[in-house]
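Budget justification note: compute hours in this period were largely spent on complex prediction jobs such as the one shown. Inputs:
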Amino acid sequence: MPMKIGNANFHERVETNLHNTFMRGAVAGAQERLHTRRLEAAKELGNWEEWRALGEEIRQHTLENLDYYLMQLSENVAKRGGHVFFAQTAEEANNYIRDVVIRKKAKKIVKSKSMVTEEINLNAVLEAAGCEVIETDLGEYILQIDDHDPPSHIVAPALHKNKEQIRDVFREKLGYKQTEKPEELALHARKTLRREYLTADIGITGCNFAIAESGSITLVTNEGNADLVTALPKTQITVMGMERIVPTFEEMEVLVSLLTRSAVGQKLTSYITVLTGPRDEGDVDGPEEFHLVIVDNGRSNILGTEFQPVLQCIRCAACVNVCPVYRHIGGHSYGSIYSGPIGAVLSPLLGGYDDYKELPYASSLCAACTEACPVKIPLHELLLKHRQVIVEREGKAPISEKLAMKAFGLGAASSFFYKFGSKVAPSALAPFTNDDRISKGPGPLKAWTEIREFPAPNKERFRDWFREHQKGGGK
Amino acid sequence: MQTGTIHNRDKFLQTIADRLGRKQRTERVPRPHWCHQPQWTVFQGYSQDELLEALKAQCPRIHTQCVETTSAELKETLKEVVANHGGGPVVTWDDPRFDEYGLTHLLRDEWPKENTDVHIWDASAGRKNIDFADKANVGITFSDITLAESGTVVLFSGNGKGRTVSFLPKTYIAIVAKSTIVPRMTQAAAYIHEQIEKGHLVPSCINFITGPSNSADIEMNLVVGVHGPMKATYIVVVDR
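Corresponding output:
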């Protein structure tokens, strides 16, 4: 699946998803649960703000010295017998991986969850090369067998599906005969996937954190799928976004602690695995051959700009889990594999404003995302910066905003129009008003009031109130 | 060890340096002194007894049974725990600690005589190790370092210490010497970092394992036991 999902425009996507009641309930419930668990995990530590400050400091230092740490990483991987490929573009990364696959005459590939391989659309390339590609993370596996349904959350990709839907997909695609109980569904996936691990030719993983000092990669899962993907096939290919690196084990440890707490409220997930090169001589499990593909794909364009802090991201989705906009419109509305506030900042940078100019506006700028971020990315400020760039440099503000601003400009510029407008507004909007709220507004208010209410204009205008107040008769 | 290859590095790193508006950094970058270091304050000054209590308190939260025993009782405890999990087949690391802890007799004689299949990891047997582990009911390893805060056992891979012993069987049992318990991941990471600074090679695989495999991908319901073990038990040897 490429980074961009589908061809519908932003408003069509939002429209569709607003009417998906199960999805909206599931998202609200999941947000609630993950948010509470994160707060509890942070509270247990007591000094969460210090942890965040440390996380930010580590990420900033690493980005400032990124070329050095990538140099050190690649040297150390090669010293341990691994191969490193630096890919400027998605195409370069895909071509290299395809060449390895062809050279190994691979037919079956197992994968553990990786956002960057989604971003570069690797699976399509592998399938075109004649390979069977199997996603092994349970959520990703469900989406894959359901005719490549797109992910809707960075950490819980199948969040938008209920267990009955999953049961039906299993019945149709896997000949599953049991009930919708999650335990039974998971057990079936366990049995099916176990055979795949044991017979796969190549294992492909993402990378949570590479460690420069030792040439290692760190994988964080609860299921243990990344461990089987890397322990059983003879060849391992790991694909990493170029910024996903730390200097030493000591910084890896801090960031893993921030990641697992922020993502799922766990002190550590069940499996944190640090792999260095291929297996050692005399080892029985682990790959004979190891390739590390380091991907730029637009990231270097962010370096040195006002948007650089977005590269601090450790993909925990804490911002997604507190976002009131995501809560209403769900992950699919973003039209990108990166959803929520981080997606609204990152997608336009990696995928361009043409496809993603609406995303920075899909935000109430409430700053809950910034407050939740464990590495202190100023997400809501970056969203504002995007809006600035869109209007000033690109001249691409969404049409509705242009019209609204124009109308407001016209109305506010002339004192007659302003007085007239604010005077007639209450009665003009009266048919849409209910208990001082507007829930189905006309014209420019329509898009807003489809997902939330708008306060009705006050019957007493500020100007009138102020005049009365000065006379000493105001409320 | 044969050195691997590196492709396209120079242009890639030059682009980064250009973007950051400076020359490429090739000289060692000194590690900064981080202004905040809250990770060291967790369980600071705890005794081994207090760390063990913290570990025990964490175990129910990670769906893991924690059993205390002494080196004299270890063999009987292990037999009992394995029996409670439904018996063999059993797969273990080839690790001198099994001998040091007086378990060789159990693995090589007692269990086989009771018709409990035991496979001790044997590098020369190649793939057969994995086939056995796949069918095993129980996998047993020692914990190299144990983290009290998260309830984590840390395993360093090596020739006799197959990675899949802790992943493929239905049940995973870790034998934990009380002396290996440290406050949290910080101490383990510092130890590994120190080894690297001294020029030692890190093991090709280091596992931080915290309870059994699990997933919440279906409607956020926690399911314990997905790809890896469905159950986990830590046996803490209190006099080691």
